Amino acid sequence: MINLRRMAQFARWTLAIDKPYYRMSMAIYLACTVIVLQMLNINYLIGRDEGIFMSLGVCLVLPIATIVFAGSYMFQSFQKYKEGVREMFLIPASNIEKFLVRYIVPTTILLAMTIVSIIVGDLLQYVVGMIIQREPLQFMTVELWKGITGPFELPDGTMIFLPLLLFWIHTIYLLGANLFRNVKYNWVFTSLFLLLLFIGIGKIVPTLAHHPGRILISACNEHPLPFIIGFLAVSALNIWLSYKLFCRRQIIGRFINI
Asked: For 190-204, what is the mean pLDDT?
């Protein structure tokens, strides 16, 4: 039985422990976003049309990347707090409550930090644009919103396949965070696994070696239900395995949590 009061108490402990990590992450996110948007939007550093296009890409890709990699953030704040895992399991809350809090809180906060960094960076690039009299002068976030909400064409099946693929990759990083004990570099090991997996699939299924996205999107458009059921089933399995590995986190191990 999940107790919301216990979850709230554990969330407060999590925020107290993670506060230095979030401060550092916010500073890095903000600095990188401001610098990138400034570089892309100054006319004499890059062509006008290309700069605007790439800026829109940054504003779109950063939140998506944060969500995709969010699973690997589960224990990132314990890099400098070595007793964090041991102390976490001593707090009076069930394992499922701790798992949900450690999963939801970092994901939500880091996504919010990414969005705030983009908005602040966009505002600063607009102010700098006014000072140097750059043309055209516009907010990238506004242009991105117009593009998302306006009419645009994508291959049939893209809006089904792409979210399913990204969510599956998200659950793989969550599984990697609980499988690999190295809290700092678990995302590296998970990325290497995904790279080898995709290469292996390309070798086993030669037709996917060339234009795999186009082939899979077309197949998803023709048979959406098997894709939806398959991706959601495998993603649910990844989350369940992540929880089981999370429960074993207190067991002493070397490299992997098995």
From this structure: 85
Judge whether residue 92 has pLDDT over 80. yes
Between CA 55 and CA 53 the distance in angstroms is 5
Residues in contact with 27: Cβ distance below 8 Å, sequence separation at least 6, in sequence order: none
Helical spans, DSSP H, in 70-150:
84-90, 95-132, 140-149
CA distance 253 to 249: 9
- Asked if residues 175 and 242 have their Cβ atoms less than 8 Å apart, the reply is yes
Query: Burial level of 119, CB count in 10 A (0-12/13-18/19+)?
Result: middle
Q: What is the pLDDT of residue 170?
A: 93
Model confidence at 16: pLDDT above 80: yes
**Where does residue 182 fall: left (phi above 0), alpha (psi -120 to 50 degrees), or beta otherwise?**
beta
Residue pair 51/42 in contact (Cβ under 8 Å)? The answer is yes
Q: Are 219 and 227 in contact (CB under 8 A)?
A: yes
